Amino acid sequence: MTFTPANTVAWMEIPVRDIDRGIAFYSRVFDYALTKDESGPNPMAMFPVTDIGTGVSGHIYPGKPAAPGTGPTIHLHVPDTLEATVERFEKAGGTISGEIISMPFGRFQYGTDADGNSIGLFELAKG
């Protein structure tokens, strides 16, 4: 039997040095509220998801980010336009690298968050 998941990625975690600063950064960039949850063994703040059964989400948590250029890149959907999200990303303290990359299914731009994590800002193609 072959298992074919709805999404290859099940969950993602982004380490941040300071959870409150991380919450402020990602809330500002994506224009939604991440709320600290201290009910588990470690504090975290979950990204919103509308359907946990078929959607993919994740959280930020207090941890040590990988050295620059050595960790994975997490691509996150932009809430409006790529350009508007890039502007908020930079104003919040992130760094953008390179140009916008376009493909038939969307476009994205690479950046580094305030903790040095590699983040892709992704906008699905319209239509």
User: What share of residues is helical?
Assistant: 10-25%
**SS content category:** alpha/beta
Order of helices and strands: EHEEEEHEEE
Q: What's the structural domain tally?
A: 1
How much of the sequence lies in strands comes to: 35-45%
CATH topology-level fold name? 2,3-Dihydroxybiphenyl 1,2-Dioxygenase, domain 1
Fourth-level CATH superfamily: 2,3-Dihydroxybiphenyl 1,2-Dioxygenase, domain 1
Distance N to C terminus: 35 Å
Give the radius of gyration.
15 Å
Number of helices: 2
Strand order of the largest sheet: 1-4-3-2
Description:
The chain has a single domain (11-65, 72-124), classed as 2,3-Dihydroxybiphenyl 1,2-Dioxygenase, domain 1 (Roll), CATH 3.10.180. Strand 7 (106-112) and strand 8 form a beta hairpin. It has helices spanning 19-30, 82-91; strands spanning 11-16, 36-37, 44-46, 57-62, 73-77, 95-103, 106-112, 118-124. 17% of the residues lie in helices and 35% in strands. The model has no long low-confidence stretch (mean pLDDT 92).
Task: Give short descriptive properties of this protein.
single chain, four-stranded mixed beta sheet, alpha/beta
